[in-house]
């Protein structure tokens, strides 16, 4: 049996099509509680970004051969516990590269052009032409891309195509098409900082209070990766005191972000609900590729994108 976490896909017709030749039964969990209850029966789990696949759950997976993530990040999966239990973990790395890179660019451009406050004022009957005073030509700006994997590279190429100078920083990559700098040097130079790293113990709060204070006055922060990369309370303080020009965020430490969170009332915050990955094409792509990994496991073939 292949068990699917509660999801927001239109349907699971792609999974049924891919897995039909294996004879596997597909079960959609209707709630997180049902998912945890049914998980011990599963041969494969297909999971989203928010379902916690923790050590307690993994200890119950006596039949499970693999846990497959709909997407790239596996920070919600206890990978070490899965490996110790002999359960493979796989992800889908490339289904939404174009979408996430485009969303990062859209957030940055909206902030740089101050579209939200200008729209709000115009809709109130004002004519706020002075609101764009102080905006800069893109070719005069520097974009710092933190993390130059598939999505970071695609994002950097888009900013460069618009005329921005691009610099990069990455804790593991040693060669890139753009100058690789220590993070502190990137923050000192970048007018736009765009984050594209996985969330690990080493990257959690990569941008803490000190790093946010070290950013250039008026700089823009974009995060379409994982909310835990940023100390959100410190970011809210920087926005509220006007030290930063804005923050475009598609991801948060706790999702959905509560309306009482200080970021929700911070000037210059542009928030979207973890949708950067989505287009109709990307959704079908990630469903197909995750199901194909499940099919490989069920038919004794090696995974294409193993994490363990």
Automatic annotation (TrEMBL):
Listed SUPFAM superfamilies: Formate/glycerate dehydrogenase catalytic domain-like (SSF52283), NAD(P)-binding Rossmann-fold domains (SSF51735)
Gene Ontology MF term list: NAD binding; oxidoreductase activity, acting on the CH-OH group of donors, NAD or NADP as acceptor; transcription corepressor activity
Domain D-isomer specific 2-hydroxyacid dehydrogenase NAD-binding per the UniProt entry, residue ranges: 105-276
A Pfam family reported for this protein in Swiss-Prot or TrEMBL: 2-Hacid_dh
InterPro entries attached to this UniProt entry: CtBP, D-iso_2-hydroxyacid_DH_PdxB, D-isomer_2_OHA_DH_cat_dom, D-isomer_DH_CS, D-isomer_DH_NAD-bd, NAD(P)-bd_dom_sf
Keyword set, alphabetical order: NAD, Oxidoreductase
Highest taxon listed in the record's lineage: Bacteria
Domain D-isomer specific 2-hydroxyacid dehydrogenase catalytic: 29-307
Gene3D superfamilies: NAD(P)-binding Rossmann-like Domain
Keyword Phosphoprotein in record: no
Keyword Oxidoreductase: yes
Similarity comment text for this entry: Belongs to the D-isomer specific 2-hydroxyacid dehydrogenase family.
Name under which the protein is recorded: D-isomer specific 2-hydroxyacid dehydrogenase NAD-binding protein
Organism per entry: Conexibacter woesei (strain DSM 14684 / CCUG 47730 / CIP 108061 / JCM 11494 / NBRC 100937 / ID131577)
């Amino acid at each position: 049996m292949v068990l699917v976490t509660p999801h927001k896909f239109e349907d699971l017709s792609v999974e049924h099509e891919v897995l039909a030749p294996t004879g596997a039964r597909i079960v959609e969990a209707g709630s997180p509680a049902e998912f945890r209850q049914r998980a011990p029966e599963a041969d494969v789990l297909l999971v989203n970004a928010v379902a916690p696949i923790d050590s307690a759950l993994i200890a119950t997976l006596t039949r499970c051969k693999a846990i497959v993530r709909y997407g790239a990040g596996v920070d919600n999966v206890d990978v070490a516990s899965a490996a110790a239990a002999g359960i493979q973990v796989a992800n889908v790395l490339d289904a939404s590269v174009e979408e996430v890179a485009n969303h990062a660019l859209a957030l940055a451009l909206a902030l740089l052009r101050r579209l939200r406050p200008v729209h709000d004022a115009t809709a109130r009957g004002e004519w706020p032409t002075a609101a764009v005073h102080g905006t800069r030509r893109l070719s005069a700006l520097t974009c710092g891309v933190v993390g130059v994997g598939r999505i970071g590279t695609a994002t950097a190429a888009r900013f460069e195509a618009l005329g921005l100078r691009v610099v990069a920083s990455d804790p593991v990559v040693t060669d890139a098409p753009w100058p690789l700098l220590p993070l502190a040097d990137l923050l000192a130079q970048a007018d736009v900082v765009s984050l594209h790293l996985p969330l690990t113990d080493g990257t959690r709060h990569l941008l803490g209070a000190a790093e946010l204070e070290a950013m250039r006055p008026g700089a823009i922060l974009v995060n379409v990766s994982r909310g835990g990369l940023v100390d959100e309370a410190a970011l809210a303080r920087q926005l509220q005191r006007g030290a930063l020009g804005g923050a475009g965020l598609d991801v948060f430490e706790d999702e959905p972000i509560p309306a009482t969170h200080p970021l929700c009332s911070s000037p210059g915050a542009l928030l979207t609900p973890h949708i950067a990955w989505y287009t109709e094409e990307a959704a079908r792509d990630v469903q197909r590729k995750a199901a194909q990994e499940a099919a490989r496991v069920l038919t004794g073939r090696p995974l294409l994108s193993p994490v363990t």
